[in-house]
Amino acid sequence: MSLRATRIEMPASTREQVVTLLNQRVAEVTDVWMQIKLAHWNVRGPHFQAYHTLFDTLADHLLEAQDALAERAATLGGEAGMPLGQMAQMANGPTWPMGVRQDRQVIILVADRLSHIANRIRQDIDETAAWGDAGTADLLTEISRQLDHDLWLVEAHGEA
Ligand SMILES: [Fe+2]
């Protein structure tokens, strides 16, 4: 990886580790964002309006997280993000099962996808802190707290 020079006093080896982690999460967050938009567009059933609106709020928060993660990678001198096809390969989580539209099934899938990324990012907080990058750990903490909050909303709507 070729890192840009910066006045940030952090070893290049640490910056490389962090940039790699951040870009991996950018790919995963983008994948989950797309899956939640699929839920937003395709959900059907008695809870349509509540779920349709909720899913858009979640998707907006994931895009904010994507932007913050990518910009932290750029801040540390890395190349931020990657083309969409490469993100899809890197994300390697479960894909969205097209054809599932019933609101009660959709909200359980959304809870699963959101909790998967939320729990990954929670682990990253300790990992980046141990590497000596408190700034990234703090950013991940903020994202983690937002995702936990959003998961509460999903679980409360769906009793999932
Ligand atoms: Fe929409």
Detailed description of the structure:
The protein is mostly helical. The protein is 75% helix and 0% strand. The site of fe (ii) ion (FE2) has 2 residues, from loops. InterPro entries: DPS_DNA-bd, Ferritin-like, Ferritin-like_SF, Ferritin_DPS_dom. It holds the Pfam family Ferritin. Residues 21-157 form the Ferritin/DPS domain. One of its GO terms (molecular function) is ferric iron binding.
* Structural Rg: 17 Å
Oligomer description: single chain
At the fold tier of CATH, the topology name is Ferritin
Distance between the termini: 41 Å
Q: Any idea what the CATH architecture is?
A: Up-down Bundle
* Count of beta strands: 0
Structural class: mainly alpha
What bound compounds does this protein have? fe (ii) ion
What sort of overall outline do the alpha carbons produce when their principal axes are compared?
A: elongated
Give the low-pLDDT segments: none
What is the total number of structural domains? 1
> CATH class, please?
Mainly Alpha
How many DSSP helices?
5
Mean pLDDT: 96
Features:
single chain, 160 residues, mainly alpha, Ferritin, 5 helices, elongated, binds fe (ii) ion, Ferritin Dps family protein, ferric iron binding
